[in-house]
Amino acid sequence: MKGNFEFRTRKSNRSLWVIECIDPNCSWRLRASKIVPESTKFVIRKYVGVHSCSLLNRNANHRQATYVVIGEQVAPQYVGVEKGPGPKGVQTFARTELGAQISYYKAWRGRKHAHTLIRGSPEQSFHVLPSYFHMLEKLNSGTVTRIEVDGESRFKYLFLAFGVAIRGFRYMRKVVGIDGTFLKGQYRGVLLVATAQDGNGQCYPLAWGIVDSENEDAWSWFLTQLKEIIGDTDELALISDRAPSIKKAISTVFEKAHHGACAWHVAQNIKNKFKCADIMGSYWSAVNAYRCEDFTGYMIEISNRYPRVAEYLENEVGFEKWSRCHYPGLRYNITTTNMVESLNSMLVNARDFPYVALLDVIQEKMSKWWNDRRIVATAITTPLTPSRESELRPRFAQSNGRHTSQLNPITYHVKGGELEGVVDIFNKTCTCKEFDIDKLPCVHAVAAAHHAQVSVYNLVSLYYTKEYYLLAYGETIYPVGSQSQWDVPNEVVTRIVLPREVKEKKRGRPKTSRFPSVGEFRKRKNRCGKCGAYGHYKKKCNSQTGSTEGNPPTNVPG
Questions:
Q1: Residue 197: its H or E element
Q2: Is residue 207 within 8 Å of residue 161, measured between CB atoms?
Q3: Residues 3-42, buried b or exposed e (16+ Cβ, 10 A)?
Q4: How far apart are CA 480 and CA 360, in angstroms?
Q5: How many CA atoms lie less than 13 Å away from 105 in the CB half-sphere?
Q6: Cβ neighbour number for residue 413 with a 10 Å cutoff
Q7: Residue 313 has what DSSP assignment?
Q8: Helix or strand or coil: residue 147?
Q9: Can you tell me the distance from the alpha carbon of 404 to that of 412, in angstroms, rounded to the nearest whole number?
């Protein structure tokens, strides 16, 4: 193939394979037959390796350069990576390594075939899913898996929660963000995620699900499985966008937990509905206000400039859904679903994988996180996690100039700065409300602790301590290994899970990028009119090449 010589098959059957050059006058040929009739292996019996044909017979558009051959050759480049070369990269590979000129479409099919060789086909993924879940449960104690099928045994939903994460949730603040992101594979679907946030401010994935779409039935099923592993208490806070399907499902499944709206999504809705981006400063100040008095002041600012926005925030959304000070439960400093969005962006390249391959990527990511964070936790030399320690230390310096007086054995009055505070070091409260909500000592609490000769670390929530951080990541998430090594009962192997029915495929290139969310605007890259590169304008281009349109002519005679 590298020499651009094509061949044709002269004879082919179960025991013999004879090929020769496409030029009938050429001497190049190869003959191979089975070693023995019962064998599946062939041995070359005769080979004439020199072409005697004209060079005119060479063809870069090689007839043997099929998408299957291209896929087999390029497949190693997709091992151990999530993305690998795209169709243009496959074209370059075929040209440089195989000497073949192939079309973009053939390169695309070759890439798809390579994905199938490495990650399995989408249909095979449904078949192996019960066995895969069995091995996850076997190797990771306490892991919860669910597969829901319809009356025809066609796939509907799946649910996965690693036992390590379930047990570790006891060391997390009871705030869970939930969201979904669309999948790009042949059978599409939506990946649902529920995640907490550890004491160091990092994502702590609790549960994963795959459903057909973000509808009320799918969310209700997923949240029902989630409720079984995290419970339903007044302490629990669930944060999501304001999609009607999520709101209805949460109110149906969780009777005691409090539902909060993602403040970022509310902000996007405001910008889209009322076209008032200039009010966002006051809005975010209202979101993050600890005291209702401060919140009221910011809302007055919004009401004076945009009365309809203030009415929307109060009546349609509800203060208790998006503002920190009015929230009926405890959401700490978590006002958005950014922790979920970061998980979705992490899987941007894996979202077109077959389901089992996607779950494998999730398992690999979580295994690495647990190990890396365990190492970090072991090396911590302070009582708190690094992020909370860095947050608390400046407050020591700020508390030095405060005047503190004792009111009773547990209550202290702290003056100085913009705001005074009355601190109860026993109940861990302060009139500034920052201590109450974040569960991390405010400046007033730090000053009171110093006056009372009490360690400020005794006032910090256990969720922020090194001990809880280490306990959360103290266990290991194990991979399932090669399929040839699985030990699965026959009743699991024979369970039938068929692919779901999909709508008829539309013509053209499949869509792989999502529509922007409400109020979300994607910044367009600047493209230079001179060199064609992105990131700068023509006036600032330093390139010496490109178009000379508009420049005075040179080398004009006479």
A1: strand 190-197
A2: yes
A3: ebbbbeeeeeeeeebbbbbebeebebebbbbeeeeeeeee
A4: 9
A5: 2
A6: 17
A7: I
A8: strand
A9: 7
d(CA 492, CA 134): 8
Distance CA 30, CA 501 (A): 46
Q: What tens digit of pLDDT does each residue of 249-277 get?
A: 999 999 999 999 999 999 999 988 888 88
CB 210 within 8 A of CB 356: no
Note the pTM of the prediction, 2 decimals.
0.80
Please compute the mean of the pLDDT values over residues 434-458 and round it to a whole number.
Answer: 94
180 neighbors 191 (Cβ within 8 angstroms): yes
Measured CA to CA, the distance from residue 320 to residue 411 in angstroms comes to: 29
Give Dmax (Cα) for the chain. 109
Give the C-alpha separation, 128 to 76, whole Å.
23
Rounded CA-CA distance 98/71 in Å is 12
Question: Rounded to an integer, what distance in angstroms lies between the CA atom of residue 155 and that of residue 147?
Answer: 8
The length of the chain, given as a count of residues = 558
Q: For residues 447 and 402, what is the distance between their CA atoms, to the nearest angstrom? A: 7
**Listed residue (154, 218, 220) closest to 190, CA to CA:** 218
pLDDT attached to residue 555: 44
Query: For residues 410 and 425, what is the distance between their CA atoms, to the nearest angstrom?
Result: 6
* CA proximity to 164, closest of 324, 371, 447: 371
